[in-house]
Amino acid sequence: MLTMVFCPLLWADNSIEQGIRLFNQKEYDQAQELFLEESKKGSAYATYWLGVAQYEKGKHFEAGETFLLAANMGSPWAMAILAGKELNSNSPCDYLGWPCNEEWKDKAFEGWKVQAENGNGKAMYAMRVKKPYWWELVPFYRSYKSEAIYKEAFEKGANKAALRVSSWVSEDKALEYIESAAINGYAPAMVSIYYYTKDTDPLGAEEWLNKALNLGYKNAAEAFLNKYFLKKNGVRNISKSYYYNRVLGRLGGDEMKSEVFITEVVEKDGVATFDENGKMIVRRLITQEEQDELDRQVEEFVKDIKINLFLDEISIELF
Asked: Which one of 72, 96, 118 terminates a domain?
């Protein structure tokens, strides 16, 4: 077994971490207030997160100004955004008119280097994924070096590194890393375990998926939805598909229209049928009473669960 130094997923009692927590609960306005307060006190980190919250709220032009402020205050994360396409393939710099400049790239790496030397695993992770190295041309050494970097990054707080390292190690070893992150309380790792083991250990896999769901992670609901909505032996589980689709929506995911699950088009010889008014004929797959009961169960399930997107500097994808 790998020896891991666990960093439990506990939120520190300070305003910035509280703001990140609220952001992950999709409470963007409250998060923004806390970030703004700390930004005014001179925190580059809070200013970067203020820009993230503004962007998420659709204040794209304002976010660009905030990222520039954060970069000038010393945030390598904001610098990386303002490096434009040098570090972000889908950078919005051109069409949003942000003050981007490729010179921010080197400054971002300088900032990450300082943070990494001070034990910031997320900075270690960023330096690995955002920059090519000569040793990547040497197959064996590339795998060895990548694992070493991701392992240290994970041990120092970058939970996503446990998922990224899987590209460089055996499947068994990858699963050990992912399980370590899951034990830390990192729901994305729990969902990853589900996909790794759903065929070999379906009960254990589903147990991990339920843990992630109870932590408020929408991707777990999506995994359950895919499980029950995709036909198995030609049959869908309509009730469970409907249920998990509703849960997905309540956890901040993209909920499909209920009609997708509770009705189907009446066909004859494989062709849709229509009534005398030209309206397509459909039939219900579950009764109204069954639908109401499922809705009640959904509300009962989510009433004590907080949405958690499990996003941080290295896992958030703004664009």
From this structure: 118
Instruction: State the CATH number of the domain containing residue 41.
Output: 1.25.40
What count of residues does the chain have? 319
> Domain residues for 53?
15-118
- End-to-end Cα spacing for the chain: 37
Beta carbons within 8 Å of 140's beta carbon, 6+ residues apart: none
Residue 268 lies in a domain: yes
Distance CA 3, CA 180 (A): 9
Q: Indicate the number of domains in the chain.
A: 2
Q: What is the pLDDT of residues 308-319, one digit of tens each?
A: 999 999 999 999
- Amino acid identity, position 214: N
Q: Which residues pair with 274 in a beta bridge?
A: 280
Q: Which of 70, 99, 118 represents a domain boundary (last residue)?
A: 118
Other residues' Cβ atoms within 10 Å of the Cβ of residue 102: 12
Return d(Cα 141, Cα 38) in angstroms, integer: 43
Question: 82-141: per-residue pLDDT in tens?
Answer: 999 999 999 999 999 999 999 999 999 999 999 999 999 999 999 999 999 999 999 899
Q: Are 133 and 109 in contact (CB under 8 A)?
A: no
